[in-house]
Amino acid sequence: MVCRRCLKVIQQELEAIKVMVHSLELGKLSVLIDADTDRNFEKQIVNILHQNGFEIAKSEDEMIVENIKLTLIELISELPIDMKKNTSEHLAALLCRDYKILSKIFSKNEHITIEKYFIKLKIEKAKELIQMQQQTFSDISYQLDYSSVNHLSRQFKKITGLSMTDYKNSPIWERNFFDEII
Question: pTM for this structure?
Answer without folding.
Answer: 0.73
